[in-house]
Amino acid sequence: MNPTPSITTLLKRLWHHISPRRRAQFGLLLVLMVGASFAEILSIGAVLPFIAVLTSPERIFRLPAAQPYIQAAGITSATQLLLPLTITFGVAALLSGAMRLLLLWTSTRLSYATGADLSISIYRRTLYQPYAVHVARNSSEVINGISGKANSVIDNIILPITTLISSSIMLLAILIALLSVDPIIALAAFGGFGLIYAGIIKLTQNQQLLNSQCIARESTQVIKSLQEGLGGIRDVLIDSSQGAYCQVYRNADHLLRKAQGNNLFIGLSPRYGIEALGMMLIALLAYALSQQPHGIAKAIPVLGAFALGAQRLLPVLQGAYYSWSTIQGGQVSLQDTLELLDQPLPDYVDQPPDLPLPFSQQINLNNLSFRYSAQTPLVLSNLNLAIAKGSRIGFIGVTGSGKSTLLDIIMGLLQPTEGDIEIDAQPLSVANNRAWQAHIAHVPQAIFLADSTIEENIAFGIPKAKIDHTRVRQAARQAQIADIIESWPKKYQTNVGERGIRLSGGQRQRIGIARALYKQANVIIFDEATSALDNETEQAVMHAIESLGEDLTVLIIAHRLTTLKNCTQIVELADGGIKRIGTYQEIITNVRAGNSAAPQPSVLW
């Protein structure tokens, strides 16, 4: 495992991802923190004359510094000081409480708004990553990063930082107020408590880092176990393997909760010891002051000020420590979140869609080779192929021969390791990839359906208000599913359930085909897309596609060889290259002669 960067380095990276608007709002929040600290000084400063006037009003009445205020208020006797000082103390206390409440509301609101910005930024950057990146990573890590770890940044980083800064300013204000009462005792109290907290931080930081690593790791494992258990629920139920999946979940969740609990204990536990020490300090101070001349009368105002100061000081000091402890506990999750935030965005983000790349002649694959990583063998090697516009090309070959990978490259989802693709003699590149994909509609074997209506799934990715209802019905008719949909009570507004669970496999497949036809693309790629259809429906769908026009280019990996009988050419792949190209009849002849890796016409593969 790579060493975790320092928290300062991580916070600088996080600041880079916060928008200028939010940065300005954090600046205003800092101003509010300073205002709240002044209100705190006022509330502590008001307690000294208030208690003094309760115990010895004559001394306050005779103070030279108080004379201007006494004369301005028209006070003629010491007893008249009690009401205005009571009101002043009450107003100061209310003002301090109101400022702290406003500060809490503002910091919480701003922290969660910033967290929402970061979460959508992660999701946006993830969606724009190349297909090769998505293939290489585990979706559990991404889901946990977008939801769990982004929330962790709010609760364990942003909110604690605002609390830490606010507490630091507040501590400075309280220190200034107590210094005006008794500098020696104030410095001794701050120094003593500060050293205790600094020692605790030093002793616990390694354990908190280990806990942080555990939380980041096991939170992803919890998501992974949930996805696997619920995603394969049919097999889980059939195999009665619920216990095994529960055990995997229990192991991950137990370690996660234990680490979270340890961090919480480390953050909260010093408070109780510090509060006891604070009470001892006040008791010792009271004893020392009582031994001096006029001890009790003189001690009560000082003790009152220090009691109030300690009452404010200790929670603020504990809040600052707890915030720092929480930040350390979220350090590794912050690092994982920043890795997702650092994902680069392509140049075309926020730009209008490119005009479709000119395509009127053919697609050329020139000496094309591909491997998924430098450590893996070549999947395709020095492959050359020309695909004329309007042709119907079928692809066959044994499992692992590279059929789906080849189509992914043609669709621009994967970039060739060597060689290139030309569209009408124009090389396909990252710059014009989107313009080429505007021509393409893809129908995979496993159709993804959103938990929404039939109509929204056919017009997938189109805002509901912009769906062309006529086009939806036309695509459904061409996919041979309109009669079924229109026999249901809600017709095209029927909800399909999560991942289309309320539909049969064949119905899901035909909605996927209708989705491709709705796009009105002129290159349609079927990756074993008719595998769930019976022979009669498959033939009807293929006949409908054939009738769409001569300009439509169709590339098919078929489940049955008979599906390809109307193809212009059939390409057989083997050992990373093209073994044979021929018509349906030529391939059938080779199959019957036993000279091909392709299956028998009626056999599934």
Count of discrete structural domains: 3
Query: What is the gyration radius calculated from CA atoms?
Result: 36 Å
- Binned, the helix content reads 55-70%
What is the percentage of strand-forming residues?
A: 5-15%
Structural class: alpha/beta
CATH architecture of the largest domain: Up-down Bundle
What does the largest sheet look like? 6 strands, mixed
Q: Order of strands side by side in the largest beta sheet? A: 6-7-8-3-9-10
Within the CATH hierarchy, at the fold level, what is the topology of the largest domain? ABC transporter transmembrane region fold
Specify the number of helices: 21
Overall shape: it is elongated
What's the count of strands? 10
Spatial separation of the terminal alpha carbons: 42 Å
What is the CATH top level name of the largest domain?
A: Mainly Alpha
**Average pLDDT taken over every residue:** 78
- Poorly predicted regions: 599-605
What is the H level of CATH, i.e. the homologous superfamily of the largest domain? Answer: ABC transporter type 1, transmembrane domain
Task: Please tell me about this protein's structure.
The protein has about 600 residues and is α/β, with parallel strands linked by helices. The protein folds into 3 domains: about 5-340, Up-down Bundle (ABC transporter transmembrane region fold); about 355-440 and about 520-605, 3-Layer(aba) Sandwich (Rossmann fold); about 445-520, 3-Layer(aba) Sandwich (Rossmann fold), CATH 3.40.50.300. Helix content is about 60%, strand content about 10%. It contains 21 helices and 10 strands. The protein has a 6-stranded mixed β-sheet, sandwiched between helices. A hairpin with a 2-residue loop joins strand 9 (about 570-575) and strand 10. Helix 8 (about 185-230) packs parallel to helix 12. The radius of gyration is 36 Å and the shape is elongated. The two termini are about 40 Å apart. Mean pLDDT is about 80; it is low at about 600-605.
